[in-house]
Amino acid sequence: EVQLVQSGAELKKPGESLRISCEGSGYNFTTYWITWVRQMPGKGLEWIGRIDPSDSYTNYSPSFHRHVTMSVDKSISTAYLQWGSLKASDTAMYYCARLLTPGFNWFDPWGQGTLVTVSS
Amino acid sequence: DIQMTQSPSSVSASVGDRVTITCRASQSISSWLAWYQQKPGKAPNLLIYAASTLQSGVPSRFSGSGSGTDFTLTITSLQPEDFATYYCQQANSFPPTFGGGTKVEIK
Predict the structure, then answer these.
(1) Distance CA A26, CA B97 (A)
(2) pLDDT at residue B54, as a whole number
(3) Mean of all residue pLDDT scores within chain B
(4) In sequence order, what E strands does chain B have?
(5) How much is the pLDDT for A102?
(6) Residue A1 CA from chain centroid, whole number
(7) Best A50, A100, A107, A114 residue to mutate vs chain B (most B CBs within 10 Å)
(8) Which pLDDT belongs to residue A88?
(9) Could you report the average pLDDT of every consecutive run of 10 residues in chain A (120 residues)?
(10) Between chains, do B34 and A95 touch, taking CB under 8 Å as contact?
(11) Rounded CA gap, A64 and A68, in Å?
(12) Burial class (CB in 10 A: 0-12, 13-18, 19+), B86
């Protein structure tokens, strides 16, 4: 079974750093790009960016570029999303998802989500 | 960025009803459209891609149509497990963008 399992919920203070993870299993991790999506409380879905696990090549949405960083460790089939300095406005659920088919931006499956809360 | 506009933002329906949700792109996206279902507290789930291709395991009461700028998701004979929020997403241009969502509620 193809599966993405994300790290647990986080409670952080403004200005702190954070890295959340997304571990893939049941498929060749380096074949399919991983994408990240944000969902703020009670709101819709926003595409953050995508990373090619084979060579760590990335594309970022202009709305998120310079505020988050995506990376992978292909030796452990894990993708990461990290912040250097969190803001209260980063409070949201973050999902990772795999491309359904290499080269096409259809997202399936999805991880279960990681809730990030930033509060002083 | 391509803007995706869904309507209605919410709809009340009964079990057995036919429900149609529309999605309009701010420019032509050919058939580069997907539909997702999201239940409360859960991750989105891909229902349809390439405007009309049903994802494996998705019930046949779900169907998608359209091309260019106007698309529809139809649920024939609504079931209790279909009450959820539905999102469209364009995959034609960078960055991928989602519609604002349509919540299907119990009447």
Answers:
(1) 28
(2) 98
(3) 97
(4) 4-7, 10-13, 19-25, 33-38, 45-49, 53-54, 62-67, 70-75, 85-90, 97-98, 102-106
(5) 85
(6) 20
(7) A107
(8) 98
(9) 97 98 97 97 97 96 94 98 98 97 92 98
(10) no
(11) 6
(12) buried
Using a CB-CB cut-off of 8 Å, the residues of chain A touching B32 are 105
Taking the C-alpha atoms of residue B102 and residue B74, their distance in angstroms, rounded to an integer, is 12
pLDDT at res. B62: 98
Rounded Cα–Cα distance for residues B22 and A25 (Å):
35
pLDDT tens profile A62-92: 999 989 999 999 999 999 999 999 999 999 9
Question: β-strand B85-90 against B97-98: which pairing, if any?
Answer: antiparallel
- Which residue type occupies A74? K
Q: Which two tokens stand for residue A75?
A: 């030796």
Judge whether B64 is closer than 8 Å to chain A, CB to CB.
Answer: no
The one-letter code for the residue type at A80 is Y
CA separation for the pair B97, B23 (Å, rounded): 12
Structure tokens that stand for A38 in this block? 């944000």
